[in-house]
Amino acid sequence: MAGVAELKANLSQYLDRVKRGEEVVITDRGAPVARLVPLEGAVEEDARIERLVREGVLTPGSGRFPEALLTPPPGDPALGAAVLAALIEERREGR
Prior knowledge:
The chain has helices at residues 4-9, 11-19, 42-54, 77-93; strands at residues 2-3, 24-28, 31-36. By secondary structure, the chain is α+β, with helices and mostly antiparallel strands. A hairpin with a 2-residue loop joins strand 2 and strand 3.
């Protein structure tokens, strides 16, 4: 359970809990007034990713590109630029 002030002060932590499949009951002056629950389908994807990380199948990225990816490879500069552009586009799309 979380009071309104506690929820406001630590919203991202409570959202993380909900993403993991937990339900959060919100109280106002000790009386339950609402529930924060995960959307259908959202938990399965997060849970699947977390399971793959635990099993060592998936390694989460750091959010940073290795420097070597940011410089074109020797040879045809157009090919290197196209690969880099594709990587950056995927990054923007969250893939």
